[in-house]
Amino acid sequence: MTAGAKDLLSLLSLLPDGLSNSELIQSALPVENALSCKTTLLKTSLAHVDQNGRLVALVPVREFMQQIHPPSQPLVHSLRKYFHQLLQLYIDYEEGFQTDAVVLRRITSNLGNLQNVLLLGLQPNNPDLRDTLLCAMSLNRFNRMTNRGYSALMDKIPIVASEIADEKVQALFITEQFYSWHISPIRDPETLISQARGHFSHVTMPLEEARFWYALALYRFDHDQNIPSALDLFQKSVALARSGGYIAQQCRSLNGIAWLQYQMSDYPKVRTLAQEGQIIAHSSGFLYQESRSLYLEAIACSAMGAYGRVASLCRRSRELLDLCGLADGEANIRLLNCEAEALFFKTEYTEAYAIQLQIVQRNSMAFTPVNYNHAIAQTNIALLDVVMESNKPKSAVRQDLEEARGVFSTMKWTPGVTLCDIVSAELEIRQGNAVGAKALLQRVFELSWGNDGEGVTNSLERLGDISRWGADSADTMSVWTIALLGHGLRSHSNPVIAKALCALGDMFIVQGDDETALSLFTVASEEFTKMDVHRGRGICMVRLGDISRRRGDTRRAVEFWKESRPLFERSSQGKEVASLDAKLVSAALVEADENEKRLAKLSELDAP
Question: Which Gene3D superfamilies does the entry mention (predicted)?
Answer without folding.
Answer: Tetratricopeptide repeat domain (1.25.40.10)
